[in-house]
Structure to design on (1005 residues):
């Protein structure tokens, strides 16, 4: 596969270019529109997402039907894998914009920057999903990180939000620094930053004894710090509960879904394309390391979620735990494993964003983010309560909801490779997770409100948006097309 | 097709009920009753037209492809065992709706909708012939049950509901691992993968008996047997997984206790027969061959259930808790009978499943009748009710006698056959298990004495007699109790061939 030159690449790069154009347009429009209450800016950002989506799909279907194309002299790669993630990320961004429109905690004065930054962060995530060069990986990761720091601290009047941003930036800086050191070690050893070549080079050097496996182990561990930070895996997860709790709810939702998905895209490409050869895995058994990390991540996430009172914080820990489940698919080195991750990410997108949308609604109407604020929701807003119940039980993995089917194909893939201990840890974790998800359900349905029992009414638009998340959460598992994702991984896993 | 209709009519009923206006409570109840009577009519039709002379599955629908990537199919059908339990489920449906007619004060619409969903889950479970479908239906009963106990239950309902949910889910995930393991090995013959993997239960049973197939490996069978066993053991419940049951039973509203005792416990034992015994005969052999500790373990668990459950029941002063613990004891006979692996043992166990479903349903309905009037269930708080409520006393005596195993009533036949079968294999444990029968007689008679005999507590001078609606729920069950006591072949004929077939499978190893 010959990489395209810079000029030829531009056409294939049009979705990313569109994002930049719209981000700029959002800022300019914000300068023109004087009315602070106007929603024009948000709508323009939404249009930007849709145009980008159209461009992504157009390029996918018109150029080689997803045959891998290497762009910008091997910096990024356009293939089915990156297209899949781009669609997923755009859905998450569009949902976040819609949430932000309905969220009452955001400052109207800053919305131009807010939506522009959302588009920029999406651009960074696009690059994360398609980067095939060490340098590009770092730039993409930093683009995403720097913008997320700002967005996490966007509630300028709220000290918690500033605290979240500060913690985020401190952890983030350490993680980026560590990762950069790891990347430079790799570059120093291999003499190239190209992921597709780096594995072969390193294998040769290892065979000739010029590089010791210890150096490689250090380099990979350091890179893992950066990726682990993005997907919030143990021990790099500490930032996420504080950030999730302090950040505006739409941003929390965005970080928990989009940032995690992009992190997984990067993780899969980095390890599978770069370090998937047998020789390298004999020197550094990264799948086993990751299996341990995965088991720890889900256990720590679930156990820490048990005593939480704040729903955002609870969902933050739950999101850590889901990162652990997803990681299981990454240690298997099979296309079924990758397919299971992709399937689970789609399901997770709908159920987790849906849960956060309910959090937005409840925060607006009841002014509460704690579990107690959900008491009696079933009598005050029955449909919203039922929707939340669906999301929470889907997150637990109870049939007939999509979360069950996601876990099902994930665990089937894990057991197929004989990781019985990992599957058992994962499944027992699902049982533990029921306890804290059910606490919210209990508050909504089982506990009576002592005070007011007035019905809360929501607009039709709210219910329409809610059903966009509920319907897939119920039905994805029953549709055959979602079970073909393992084909997508072809361009990432190198031929052995 | 008929069977699919029967399973999904309650689901359709749920949608209809949800669309009805909130205010029209009477209408909601009537619609629900209608949608539970249709499955009953279909179940009676199945019962009558079922061909008793063969062991094969009948009335099947499918296999229809569902999720192609995993070769999951929609495949249902019934054999003698499932048709019996389907009838029981369909019968208890309308009875529970009638029993809930006046007792559910809030949210009747949601209650009835959840009840109908629960019924679909239960009916589907007994008819499923695809392991994946089987699991989905098994889990489908969890959600409605959680809400039915948690919203309409007693004072400690929240605790009881989540405990029930957590215990069952714990069992289910182990079952899920075993199920995936079976699926992944379903196309491996002599270490070579050939053809598609499958979840189809009849196919899997055949494969597990094929020489050289991965499913026929005895070590593999022992492990997956354990996985499925724990899943079902929580449901039965088998000691030490039983502690959710007293809590759930005591807190649940009357009709839901009836379903719990009548059907949900049977889902556990049905699963043991359908999957553990039929699919993993070598695994079963390991736990029931009578050699050493493991060889006696299943019978031992049955024995513990019988004796421990009975003694716990003897110690209770709460009427409902007493009935709950007596259920644990009576399910022990099922386990003991199944562990025997012979014709009287298995026949007795299956008969006991059906009979216990009927008798425990009666007992819980009777407890509910008393609770609705006195608003407590403390056995020692009553006395001399026999003079105030003669009809109630009569029916209760019948149910007690049936439950303690009086010959001539249905409880006796199942227990006697189970013990007869078990005596052949596990003499010592069977003899010890009879302690349970003695203790059973003791607690029932003692309760009878404390509640109905003696002097009337002046507080209950004004207690009203059981009313027509309540009698209506009890009469069909009472008739069955007497009928199956004197004519047990009515039920046994249904599953005679299926049991013979199962025993052939068990002896083929």
């Amino acid at each position: 596969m010959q990489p395209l030159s810079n000029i030829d690449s531009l056409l294939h790069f049009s979705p990313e270019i569109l994002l930049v154009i719209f981000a700029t347009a959002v800022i300019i429009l914000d300068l023109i529109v004087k009315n602070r209450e106007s929603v024009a800016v948000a709508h323009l950002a939404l249009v930007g997402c849709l145009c980008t989506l159209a461009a992504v799909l157009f390029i996918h279907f018109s150029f080689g039907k997803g045959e891998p194309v290497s762009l910008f002299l091997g910096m990024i790669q356009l293939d089915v894998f990156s297209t899949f993630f781009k669609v997923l990320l755009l859905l998450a961004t569009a949902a976040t914009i819609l949430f932000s429109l309905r969220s009452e905690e955001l400052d109207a004065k800053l919305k131009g920057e807010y939506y522009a930054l959302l588009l920029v962060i999406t651009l960074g995530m696009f690059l994360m999903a398609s980067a095939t060069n060490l340098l590009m990986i770092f730039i993409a990761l930093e683009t995403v990180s720097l913008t997320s720091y700002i967005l996490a601290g966007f509630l300028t009047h709220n000290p918690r939000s500033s605290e979240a941003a500060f913690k985020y930036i401190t952890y983030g800086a350490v993680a980026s620094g560590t990762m950069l050191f790891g990347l430079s070690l790799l570059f120093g050893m291999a003499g190239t930053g190209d992921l597709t070549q780096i594995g072969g080079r390193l294998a040769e050097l290892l065979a000739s004894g010029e590089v010791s496996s210890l150096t490689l182990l250090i380099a990979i561990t350091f890179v893992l710090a950066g990726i682990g930070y993005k997907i919030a895996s143990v021990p790099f997860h500490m930032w996420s509960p504080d950030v999730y709790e302090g950040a505006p709810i739409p941003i929390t939702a965005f970080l928990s879904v989009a940032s995690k998905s992009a992190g997984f895209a990067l993780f899969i490409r980095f390890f599978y394309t770069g370090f998937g050869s047998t020789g390298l895995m004999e020197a550094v058994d990264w799948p086993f390391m990751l299996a341990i990390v995965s088991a720890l991540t889900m256990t720590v996430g679930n156990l820490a979620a048990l005593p939480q009172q704040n729903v955002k914080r609870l969902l933050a820990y739950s999101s850590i735990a889901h990162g652990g489940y997803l990681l299981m698919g990454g240690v298997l080195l099979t296309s079924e494993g990758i397919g299971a991750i992709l399937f689970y990410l789609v399901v997770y997108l709908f159920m987790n964003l849906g849960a956060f949308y309910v959090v937005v609604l409840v925060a607006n109407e009841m002014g509460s983010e704690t579990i107690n604020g959900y008491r009696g929701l079933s009598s005050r807003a029955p449909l919203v309560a039922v929707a939340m119940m669906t999301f929470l039980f889907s997150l637990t993995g109870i049939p007939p909801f999509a979360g069950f089917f996601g876990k099902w194909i994930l665990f089937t893939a894990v057991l197929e490779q004989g990781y019985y201990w990992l599957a058992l840890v994962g499944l027992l974790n699902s049982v533990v997770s029921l306890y804290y998800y059910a606490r919210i359900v209990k508050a909504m349905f089982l506990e009576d409100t002592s005070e007011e029992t007035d019905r809360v009414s929501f607009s039709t638009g709210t219910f329409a948006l809610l059903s966009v998340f509920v319907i897939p959460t119920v039905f994805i598992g029953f549709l055959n097309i979602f079970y073909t994702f393992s084909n997508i991984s072809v361009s990432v896993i190198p031929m052995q | 097709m008929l069977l699919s209709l029967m399973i999904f009519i309650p689901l359709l009923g749920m949608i209809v009920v949800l669309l009805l206006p909130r205010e029209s409570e009477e209408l909601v109840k009537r619609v629900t009753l209608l949608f539970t009577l249709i499955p009953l009519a279909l179940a009676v039709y199945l019962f009558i037209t079922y061909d008793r002379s063969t062991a094969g599955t009948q009335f099947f629908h499918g296999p229809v492809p569902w999720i192609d990537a995993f070769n999951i199919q929609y495949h249902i059908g019934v054999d003698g065992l499932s048709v019996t339990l389907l009838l029981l489920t369909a019968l208890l449906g309308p009875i529970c709706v009638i029993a809930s007619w006046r007792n559910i004060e809030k949210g009747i619409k949601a209650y009835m909708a959840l009840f109908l969903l629960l019924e679909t889950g239960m009916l589907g479970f007994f008819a499923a012939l695809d392991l994946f479908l089987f699991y989905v239906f098994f889990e489908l009963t969890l959600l409605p049950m959680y809400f039915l106990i948690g919203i309409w239950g007693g004072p400690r309902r929240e605790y009881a509901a989540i405990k029930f949910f957590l215990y069952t889910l714990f069992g289910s995930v182990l079952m899920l691992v075993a199920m995936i393991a079976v699926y992944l090995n379903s196309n491996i013959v002599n270490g070579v993968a050939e053809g598609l993997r499958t979840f189809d239960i009849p196919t899997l049973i055949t494969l597990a008996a094929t020489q050289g197939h991965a499913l026929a490996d005895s070590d593999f069978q022992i492990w997956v047997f354990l996985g499925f066993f724990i899943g079902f053991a929580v449901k039965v419940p088998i000691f030490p997984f039983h502690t959710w049951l007293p809590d759930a039973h005591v807190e649940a509203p009357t009709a839901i206790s009836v379903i719990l005792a009548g059907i949900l416990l049977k889902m556990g034992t049905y699963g043991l027969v359908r999957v553990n015994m039929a699919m993993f005969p070598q695994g079963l052999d390991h736990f029931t061959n009578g050699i050493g500790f493991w060889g006696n373990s299943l019978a031992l668990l049955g024995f513990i259930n019988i004796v421990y459950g009975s003694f716990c029941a003897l110690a209770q002063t709460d009427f409902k808790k007493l009935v709950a613990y007596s259920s644990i004891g009576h399910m022990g006979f099922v386990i003991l009978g199944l562990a025997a692996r012979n014709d009287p043992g298995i026949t007795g166990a299956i008969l006991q499943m059906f009979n216990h479903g009927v008798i425990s349903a009666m007992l819980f309905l009777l407890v509910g009748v008393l609770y609705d009037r006195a608003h407590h269930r403390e056995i020692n708080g009553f006395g001399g009710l026999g003079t105030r409520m003669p009809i109630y006393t009569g029916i209760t005596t019948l149910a007690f006698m049936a439950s303690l195993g009086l010959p001539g009533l249905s409880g006796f036949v199942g227990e006697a056959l189970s013990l007869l079968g078990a005596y052949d294999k596990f003499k010592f444990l069977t003899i010890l298990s009879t302690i349970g029968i003695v203790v059973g007689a003791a607690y029932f008679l003692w309760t009878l004495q404390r509640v109905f005999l003696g002097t009337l507590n002046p507080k209950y001078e004004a207690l009203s007699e059981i009313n027509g609606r309540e009698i209506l729920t009890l009469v069909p069950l009472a008739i069955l109790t007497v009928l199956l006591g004197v004519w047990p072949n009515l039920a046994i004929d249904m599953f005679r061939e299926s049991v013979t077939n199962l025993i052939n499978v068990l002896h083929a190893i």
Notes: Chain B has a mean pLDDT of 88. The interface with chain A takes residues 66-70, 135-136, 139-140, 142-143, 146-147, 150-151, 157-158, 161-162, 165-166, 169-170, 173-174, 176-177, 180-181, 183-184 of chain B (CB under 8 Å). The two ends of chain B are 35 Å apart (CA to CA). Residues 299-509 of chain B form one domain.
